[in-house]
Amino acid sequence: MSGGVRKVGVEEELLLVDPATGELRALSRRVLHEHRASTAGRRDEAFTDLDEELLQHMVETRTAPDTELAKIGDQLRAARRTAIDAATAAGAAVAAVGTAPLVPADPPLSESPRYQRIGQQFGRLGRTSGTFGMHVHVDIASDEEAVRTIDGLRPWLPVVVAVAANSPYADNADTGYASWRQQVWTRWPSAGPTEPFGTLAEYRRVTAALIESGAALDRGMLYFDARPAEKFPTVEVRVADVCTDVEDALLVAALCRALVETVADQEPQTPAIRSDLLRAAHWRAARFGTAGDLAHPLTGGLAPAREVVETLVAAVAPALDAAGDRELVEAGVERVVAGTGATHQRQAFETGGDLTAVVRDAVERTEAAAL
């Protein structure tokens, strides 16, 4: 892409919980009311809006696009402060985790007509898919470049899953996974790895067929691992768990931007990795995070997590250097190879002895990350 460093933007989905028990609180409407009442008429540079999501224990924040990740970090912290302030006024706390550790049998859907339609179309799947992701948007020059890019990203995205893994607990139990969110999210019929599209025409044909089949209500429900964004001139990478620590979120954003910059003008890997093997690579990344061997994006064989992550960094090194992100990424790799968000959650369980302690720790670290 000509014109310098690509802009990046980040969306975060956040969990609303009871401050005392750690159980989820279905209070998104009240949180949004408190937010809008406290910010009526405000649109200064520090303003951050909130949105509802599929289920009533979820809220979403977003940053404005920027070329500087330091400014994205400032926006993420401000957005979390906004969410925390509104949640506190509504009687809830906020946790940045990929899945809710403590969940009732049937968390309620949001009241918006669209989310109600999703509930009607997809039944129980809609009520049990309340995961919390981090979506990274990266500037793209054209629809054709977007399709070429999402094809090129395919072998690398399991590594991003591993780096961002932050959801070991769900449904009141230890799932045995580092990213249970990845497993839950790919239950949607329009989610997960795709076949290479090759051309914009083929992408449009496939997406139209998915919508016609009922597997997606509209283009906004095309939950591919990476997709051309519906409302923005970006590629949207959707595989990462929301990160409790903002520095981990910036690592993911830096890697995603560098990957987009690197693959946008490359011919996709030949032969393309099979989708069944790609699903296996995603499974392994979700199962172990950086605590076990991962599928190597170039050879397909298993290799230590550090080697796999460092292979990604080496592949995108020129893009990292051009954006000034090399130091941030190298420090971040050392941090997440030593332990991802999932590692921290399990340490909180060992220290506190129950899932309430896990949620309490996540709330405290989410609040600390907003400072």
Secondary-structure-based class equals alpha+beta
Radius of gyration: 19 Å
Tell me the number of strands: 11
Note the total helix count. 15
Termini separation: 35 Å
Low-confidence stretches: none
Q: H/E element string?
A: EHEEHEHHEHHEEHHEEHHEEHHHHH
Describe the SSE topology.
Elements: E1 8-17, H1 28-38, E2 51-52, E3 58-62, H2 69-90, E4 93-95, H3 113-122, H4 124-127, E5 133-139, H5 143-153, H6 157-164, E6 169-170, E7 173-174, H7 180-185, H8 200-213, E8 226-228, E9 234-241, H9 246-263, H10 275-288, E10 294-295, E11 302-303, H11 305-315, H12 317-323, H13 326-338, H14 341-352, H15 355-369
Antiparallel strand pairs: 1-3, 1-4, 1-5, 2-3, 5-9, 6-7, 8-9, 10-11
Helix pairs in contact: 1-2, 2-9, 6-10, 9-12, 9-13, 11-13, 14-15
Please name the defining characteristics of this protein.
two-stranded antiparallel sheet, alpha+beta, 11 strands, 371 residues, globular, 12% strand, 15 helices, single chain, seven-stranded antiparallel beta sheet
Structure report:
- The mean pLDDT is 94.
- The longest helix has 22 residues.
- The chain has 15 helices and eleven strands.
- The strands form three sheets. Strands 1, 2, 3, 4, 5, 8 and 9 form a seven-stranded antiparallel beta sheet that branches. It has a two-stranded antiparallel sheet with strand order 6-7.
- It has 371 residues and is an alpha+beta fold.
Care to give the gist of this entry?
The protein contains 15 helices and eleven strands. It has 371 residues and is α+β, with helices and mostly antiparallel strands.
